[in-house]
Each structure stands twice: as structure tokens, then as C-alpha cells.
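Task: fold both queries, return C-alpha cells.
Query 1:
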Amino acid sequence: MHAELTLDLKRTAFLIIDLQEDQRSDPLCVAADLDKVLDRSATLLRAARENGVPVFHAAFVRDFNLRPPRPFEPLAEDGGPAFSRSGSPLVAICHEVAPIDGEVVLYKNDASAFEEGSLQQRLEALGIEWLVIAGVWTEACIAASVRDAMAGGFRVVIVKDACTSGTAAMHQTGILNLANRLYGGAIADTARTETLFKGGSASVWRNSRPVPFRFTLEDASALYAGL
């Protein structure tokens, strides 16, 4: 269902997840429609900064010195991380959404932005209720971060068109799977989220019951468009 939402900007934060150079150029990481997602995320980043919304950046940087290889983790031929390797220039955050002084950058060794260990406490210290999320990949790092945010007591707004995955189908079904259990949160597009960041009210999709979308491959795109 759709309902009007207004955010208390003093209790809202913006989290951008894994918009890094490897998403443009590493064949293992290339994300679909990344240029559009970067442009939309940059729009939201400007709105957040202009209206005093705290900004957090998460970056996946695999460092075996900090987190040894996990069972069954894919490895490169030299035994190092298969992608997003510490020290590679490709782990840099894309210039379109690069952090500025005062914005927190969280370097993580797993999917969730909460893996690094300090995000929960940082958000609590700011009195955050709503966490707005954009980035990649929808069914992986976005999904893990959303679930940890909810477990930590935060309401989540997923900006559906400022997220992406390996393909449009992966992204759309990822959003629908998240929507099915997005209790207390909301899904919006960039335009509506920008309105929220400016203190306005917007009609957003809210979950009103468990598993509202028993989608199929045939109707997933239409259901996604209706969110």
C-alpha cells in the first residue's frame, strides 16, 4: 500500500553502499545501469547535505589481514581476495558520490554495512530513526544492510531506483523480496526521496502485511514499477 510519509530530518540518515570503481570495470562486479544509479545517488547526496541529513558511506574492501578467508570463499589465483581487494584502486568510492569532510566512511569485509562494527552505535548516538539506503547490489549488500538495520531498530527507506544489481531482473526481484518483509520501512524512488530530504511529504510504498508479493517472473517488473 502507499501512504504519505514525512521524515524528521533530525532523526534521519543517508547510507550509500558500495558505489565503488570496481562496479564500473571489474567483470566480477559490474553493476547494471550504474551511471543512472550514480546520478540519482548524487542527487540525493546533494539534498541530504543541503538539509543537514548525516551521510554515511560504506565500501566493500576485502582485507584478509582483518578478516581471514571464510570457508568456501572464492579466491584469486594467488590466494588473495577474488574482488574488491584491499590496496586496489578499484575499491575507491566513485567520484560522483565521493565523501566530503565530516562524512563517515565504513570499510567492511562482508555484505552488511553493519559488519564494520560501528554503524549501529553511530546511528544511535545521533538519535536516528530512519535510515535511507542507496547503492549496490540489491540482493546482496543492500539486503544484508537493510536486514541488519531493521534488527537494530531502525526504519529503512529503500530508494529503489538508486540501487542496482548485476541485471535489472536481479535488482527488481531483490527489491520485491525486501518489500515482502520490510516491516516499519518504506520504498520510494529518487524524486520522492529528494522531497523527503527537503522536509516535504511524499507518497511511498509501505508494507502492511507479511509477503504481499507472491511474484512470478512474468509479473515481477510490473509489481516493481508499482512500488
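Query 1 returned. Query 2:
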Amino acid sequence: MNSKNKKNIFKELLGYLIVAAIAAMISIGLRIFVIEPFIVPTPSMSPTLLVGDKVIVNKLEYNFTEVQRGDIVAIYSPLEKKNLVKRVIGLEGEEISFNIDGQVFINGDEILELYLPEGFVVSYENKSYKIGDNEYFVMGDNRNNSADSRVFGPISIDNIFGKVIFIYGPFSRIGKPG
């Protein structure tokens, strides 16, 4: 092999390494700042999200939009010291209250939770919470099996690290979460 061929092979390999390095940097940057794959760790969002569902979390969502009631969010649980997935029920500045008949009220008005399974029966303690500035009240859809804001109180916006936007696994569950 002559030196010209060796130089061409070296240049080609160097080109592949540069492309691979750029692709790795883009991939790492996306994962750190834009989207993150996440595996649902608990049954608290069942049947909307099941244990082991693989979801995509949009980490930039709340840099451009406000948190909305009904959003499914990835949070850091201050009580359990781990990341969880919950649904936003109460927004900053609101008062949320519950009664033993399973009703949820925001500022005295009952809210309809169409994302809960039909015939779902839950009983709450008669309790209310005042949500502060930059705080949100989150709950699992599986209300009878969820450690959520009823346990650890409203969470700071700083503990919400993104919005769940897509289920990518298992194959039978691919799609937008409810």
C-alpha cells in the first residue's frame, strides 16, 4: 500500500470519527437539555401509564408554556427522593379540596376528571390545601395507590423537570398518553 492510499484511509477514518463525535455530542445535548427517556417506576398513574412504560419527557416544555391542569409531568418527589410521573390537578394560587365522596374541588368548584377510568371509586379525607406561588398540586390517576401531593404537599415548579409527551414502549402502548 502506498503512502497516498494510507493518507486517504486515515482521512476517511478521521472523518468518520468526527461525525461520530458530533452525533454523540448532539445526542448527549438533546438528552440533557431537550428530551429524556423515562421508565414509569410505580403504578400510581395506572391505567394511563403502567409500570415499565417507556415515555419521552419534554424538558423544555415549561420554558415556553405554562403548566396546565391535566398535564402529565415528570417530577422529583421530595418525600421519596426519586423521579415520578404524576398529573397536575391544582395550579399556583388555587385552593384544592377533597371530600369523602371522591370529589375534587378547585376554589370551591368541582372539577371533572375525564381521564380517570369510568366507574373509578375513590374516597378522600375531607381536606384542603392552599397552593402557593410557583407551586402545583400533583396526583396519580390511580388515586388509591399513589403517594402524591396529598402526602408531600404541593410541589415547586423547580421539582417539575418536564412534560410526558409520548409513550414509546412497549410496542402495544405506543402513542400519546391520556
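Both queries returned. Flag for query 2: The two ends are 62 Å apart (CA to CA).
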